[in-house]
């Protein structure tokens, strides 16, 4: 196993550095110190061809604003904060609003725009990138100075683990995720409509007004959003209920096995995701930004699917806020594991 790095540009007098983790099987994870952005996950198909299974911009400068959050670390909180305000510790907190009436994915300058300090580590069984940063008190409206560590860990079982850790000086909110867009066809040769998806979930969050949670949980059973048996994404996304919301952008409460499986029959690639988060937002690329991608073409609708392992976003009337509260001098600790295979 090996770790590589090289400078690919400069922004505000800081080097933009690309790091790669490569295991003994040839699987490769590449990420930037800007936003912790994952630009490559190269895995083999059934014919032993190694191709990229995440979307990435051709020009790294497009990550400066990164309107689609391609591949980035999201924080301090993932998803919406309804009306950009909450009640916390007896006070009303107001957050910067960047999703119209709401705050989304950490605000105007979220973790996706930070330069992270990166260290590398290699031991007998894993190679890893260790990203660290400090979020100042009341940055984007969040109380407390927060210390964040995110690790990207690769082993020879073709397992990619993302580990999140955080501490804060004051009671605050924290709910981190990664916003990679997966396409198992490889080098996004085709869209995701023929991918199959299986999700161990009996409930999902009701949402209104730009995917903002109402606080109500709905049953998936006997609905188009029941993925307990694998479904073709085309059949789900073309359903009238889902089409009315432009596509999938739903938060699923995970059952005890907490497993999500994505399959592309043509390439034979499979992705199994597990996490210690209680939910996952599944997003089907409903608002493409049409920017050029590294493997050719532009980012268009349905070219990737996000599996955003996280706690439920904060809805109206403080709904689900308890899942995002991090008290002072306690440790936020979450992980998500992606295992790649072929069938």
Automatic annotation (TrEMBL):
This is Aldose 1-epimerase. Keywords: Carbohydrate metabolism, Isomerase. Pfam families: Aldose_epim (PF01263). Its EC number is 5.1.3.3. Pathway: Carbohydrate metabolism; hexose metabolism. One of its GO terms (molecular function) is carbohydrate binding. CDD domains: galactose_mutarotase_like. Gene3D superfamilies: 2.70.98.10. GO terms for biological process: galactose catabolic process via UDP-galactose, Leloir pathway; glucose metabolic process. It catalyses: alpha-D-glucose = beta-D-glucose.
């Amino acid at each position: 196993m090996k770790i590589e790095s090289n400078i690919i540009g400069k922004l505000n007098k800081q080097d933009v550095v690309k790091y790669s983790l490569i295991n003994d099987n040839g699987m490769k994870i590449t990420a930037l110190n800007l936003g912790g952005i994952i630009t490559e996950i190269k895995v083999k198909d059934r014919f032993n061809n190694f191709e990229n299974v995440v979307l990435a911009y051709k020009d790294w400068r497009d990550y400066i604003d990164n309107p689609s959050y391609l591949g980035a670390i999201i924080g301090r909180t993932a998803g919406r904060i309804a009306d950009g305000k909450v009640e916390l510790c007896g006070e009303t907190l107001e957050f910067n609003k960047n999703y119209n009436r709401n705050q989304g994915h950490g605000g105007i300058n979220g973790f996706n725009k930070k330069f992270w300090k990166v260290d590398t580590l290699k031991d007998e069984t894993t190679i890893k990138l260790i990203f660290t940063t400090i979020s100042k008190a009341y940055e984007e409206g969040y109380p407390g100075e927060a210390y964040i560590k995110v690790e990207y860990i690769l082993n020879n079982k073709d397992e990619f683990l993302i580990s999140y850790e955080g501490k804060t000086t004051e009671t605050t909110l924290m709910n981190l995720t990664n916003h990679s867009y997966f396409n198992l066809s490889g080098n996004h040769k085709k869209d995701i409509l023929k991918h199959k998806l299986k999700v161990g979930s009996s409930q999902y969050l009701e949402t209104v007004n730009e995917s903002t949670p109402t606080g109500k949980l709905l049953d998936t059973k006997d609905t188009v959003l029941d993925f307990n048996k694998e479904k073709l994404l085309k059949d789900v996304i073309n359903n009238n209920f889902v089409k009315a919301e432009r596509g999938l952008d739903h938060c699923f409460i995970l059952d005890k096995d907490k497993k999500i499986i994505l399959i592309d029959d043509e390439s034979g690639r499979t992705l199994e995701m597990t996490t210690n988060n209680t939910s996952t937002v599944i997003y089907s690329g409903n608002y493409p930004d049409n920017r050029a991608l590294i493997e050719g073409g532009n980012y268009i609708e349905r070219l990737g699917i996000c599996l955003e392992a996280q706690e439920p976003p904060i809805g109206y009337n403080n709904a689900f806020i308890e899942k995002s509260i991090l008290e002072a001098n306690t440790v936020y600790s979450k992980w998500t594991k992606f295992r790649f295979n072929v069938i």
